[in-house]
Amino acid sequence: MEQYIGIDVAKEELSVFDGTNERIFQNRQGLSTFRAYLRKAFPDLCKVVLIFEATGPYSQYLIELCASHGIKAWVVNPKKSSHFAKALGNRSKTDPIDAKTLYTFSKVVDPKNILVPQIDHVREELSLYLSSYDFVIKTQTAIVNRIEALSHHPHTPKELLVLLRHDLARAERTEARLLARMEELIKADDDLSRDYENLLTIPGIGKICAITLLAFFRTYGETKRSEITALVGLDPTRKESGTAVNGRRKISKGGNKRVRKVLYFPTLSAIQHNSKIRTFYERLVANHKPKKLAVIASMRKLVLIAHAVYKNKTPYQEAA
Q: Which residues have CB under 8 Å from 320's CB, separation 6+?
């Protein structure tokens, strides 16, 4: 019988609940004290299942521990655990309460979600570069907006605008360096380089979109075509309950937000320059579908095309 352990991950500590006792461990590289506890309390680690939220870098030590010691884990989407806590009627939110909630989550666990994490170091490095790239782009946008606002103020000192423009130029240089480093990382791996070049053959998909999709597809290497749109959050949902019998269908937005965001502008470009996407989009509009819906459907089709190119290991082929 498997032993479930709920863990709330914070920056400095792990709050652990094993169904009976609560414990606190330091969240440090190697997790030596937590590892010693597991070995003492559970001699057979193959039967242990750790349940914790995906909290970015703070949960990485746990993932590394599971991968190196063959410990199974269920890494929960934070939104799901939040909704689950509300369903249980938990009004308070503390680390021990969250650990107990995650332990209770074991009652509804889907066995297919319980896995020993596999660490793809190249993918992890790419993901870190991508998140930093996103940060730099947001910084540039904030600086540009600030310069624009100050430019319309009659008392803005010129030296203030000069300082901000210097910061903007520095951010632009950092953006270029990050992109160059990601391409160096990809080209150092033959398989990764080939997949990257294949994705770039799809009209509408540029470098950042291709890198983002590459990292995403590497994360879900065994994913089927029917599952990929759900993992991006572009799968349609229905609301037909009570008076909302004919409620509008919407996308779930339950998947990877970064991929959805990065697909938007490439899809608009693909509608103009990719014959398959353009024909698909125009057919939807001709059938009186709202343009917004047609764009979302085109995003879904574009990611499926990209996934097929990635899986088949061949360049994109335009329709004859």
A: none
Q: Tell me how far CA of residue 32 lies from CA of 25, 27, 35, in angstroms.
A: 9, 9, 5
User: For the residues 15-21, what does the mean pLDDT come to?
Assistant: 92
> What's the order of all strands across the beta sheet hosting 13-17?
22-26, 13-17, 3-9, 48-53, 72-76
Q: Which residues contact 139 (CB under 8 A, 6 or more apart)?
A: 171
Pairing mode of beta strands 236-237, 72-76: unpaired
| Closest CA relative to residue 50, chosen from 112, 89, 7 | 7
Give the pLDDT score at 173.
98
Q: CA-CA distance, 53 to 75, in Å (whole number)?
A: 5
Looking at residue 167, its pLDDT comes to: 97
Which pair of structure tokens corresponds to residue 16? 């652990």
The whole-number average pLDDT for the span 42-51 is 90
Q: Are 205 and 270 in contact (CB under 8 A)?
A: yes
Cα separations in angstroms, 128 against 56, 209, 228:
10, 15, 22
Dist. CA 35–CA 238, nearest whole Å = 44
168: nearest Cα among 143, 195, 136:
143
> Where in the chain does DSSP place strands (E)?
3-9, 13-17, 22-26, 48-53, 72-76, 236-237, 250-251
Is the pLDDT assigned to residue 320 strictly greater than 70? no
Distances (CA, A) of 108 to 73, 101, 163, 180, 226: 14, 12, 55, 44, 24
Q: What is the pLDDT of residues 155-182, one digit of tens each?
A: 999 999 999 999 999 999 999 999 999 9
| d(C-alpha 78, C-alpha 55), whole Å | 8
Residue of 296, 302, 239, 233 whose CA lies nearest to 273 = 302
